Amino acid sequence: MRRFLLARLRLEETMSQLICKDLKLGYEDIVLVEKMNIEVKKGDYLCIVGENGAGKSTLMRTLLRLQKPLGGEVLYGDGLSPKRIGYLPQQTVVQKDFPASVREVVLSGCQTSLGKHLFYTKEDKDLCRKNMERLGIESLAGHCYRELSGGQQQRVLLARALCATEDMLLLDEPVSGLDPMVTIEMYDLIRKINKSGITILMISHDIHSAVRYADHILHIGGDYFFGTTEQYLASPVGAKYLEGASEND
Amino acid sequence: MIDKLVFYLSYPFVRYAFLVGVMIALCSSLLGVTLVLKRFSYIGDGLSHVAFGAMAIAAVIGLTDEMVLTLPITIFSAVLLLWTGQNAKIKGDAAIAMISVGALAIGYLLMNLFPTSSNVSGDVCTTLFGSASILTLKQSEVILCTVLSVLVIALFIAFYDRIFAVTFDENFARAVGAPVNVYNLIIAVIIAVIIVVAMKLVGSLLVSALVIFPALSAMRIFKSFRSVTVCSAVLSVVCTLTGILLSILFGTPVGASIVAIDLVAFIICVIIGRVRLK
Prior knowledge:
The structure holds two protein chains of two kinds.
Chain A: H1 2-14, E1 16-27, E2 30-41, E3 45-49, H2 56-63, E4 71-76, E5 85-88, H3 93-96, H4 102-107, H5 122-134, H6 150-163, E6 168-172, H7 180-195, E7 199-203, H8 207-213, E8 216-219, E9 225-228, H9 229-234, H10 236-248
Parallel strand pairs in A: 3-7, 3-8, 5-6, 6-7
Antiparallel strand pairs in A: 1-2, 1-4, 8-9
Chain B: H1 2-9, H2 12-30, H3 32-37, H4 41-61, H5 67-86, H6 92-113, H7 120-129, H8 139-158, H9 160-168, H10 170-175, H11 180-202, H12 207-221, H13 225-250, H14 254-277
């Protein structure tokens, strides 16, 4: 309890939204990440990069409290609760033929209010409309989700995530499967959301875009790095992977 | 033909059949979309076999109202299946196959070992295909069916927003802190109640058709969750009424008639869906 209070106190001093302390990630007896220490402040744009199977998704699940860490702890501060993190998961098979209108999907981002009310309230519906306008999809409100293009679907899920948060978005590969033009649009959109004061945590494959848009980089799997983008570019880890990535291009 | 119908409708048991038919059709169609999309269709099928086994046990014990036994057993199995589906030691579908076929075998075995009437195969046929059981309902059964149906409909409406959320994206729901396991449990219980009640109408083999068909048909035409749900409810009631009507007029088995009409409706919906695309 005392330790918790102390940690709490320290968090409030620094006003970080999220601190991972000696976090050890993995499942059963496979350790993916040992002793991860990161700190995220309000308005940061953090990209989490690393190869497949490096533990990026495991980290996301841990931050969302869907999974327990093997060791260490995750602390939330600056008014952030894990339930108020907007989450953009990768699309599931179920959604491919789900009969749902855009409005219905976005509205389901307001689920936290269902803890107190039987149905979505008027405020929820207003919030839903506001976020659809914010992402330029209000004209699609009555359309069927499964008939939209990949980029439009991502916007819908992003609007839903925004309904769930005012503080932090967690994006799991938000541009996977999108064509180049739509990918750029999506990145611009995310940057716009970030500029409005919402912290962005994004998993990405694309190291070049990561260093272009994000101000912090977390690199896990094999090599480990956490710091600002400038530090990453200057570090041996960053140099190695950026070079590797351009060879693949 | 109208005369014949009016003549039949003057009997209370025929009116009961229509009342119960409408109630069952309504509640069985509601969860169809969730079942289809969550890949739970097979759970409905498995549960109906379990209910058959439970019915056989009830008959052997000599219970006057077999729902007293079938309802708890089916609800218990539903919860169990959902649970094994999540903590998959035995893969979900394998577990279902095991439980459902096992229950079917034990049910048939019991009915043969302890025959309650001279016509065992007739009894089995009735339980599997529901032949005429809807027309032989006692008043107490009608009341029980109605109460359970109303309960299912009320639960569905109360949890409508949550059922949508958990069907569309379980991970997102978990992430924002929704008690997903509780919702899944409620869905499982509703499914079990629907199966047991709907068995009265179409028998245990045809139950899943009653649950799945209207939803599949509605999904061909409509594009939002709400419109699909409303459409499948309407479709289900219309098909069931038509089925009962035809079976009375032409003396065909009730359950099979209803499912056949459901199938026709599905084909029509597929065609409408295709035409709309062009």
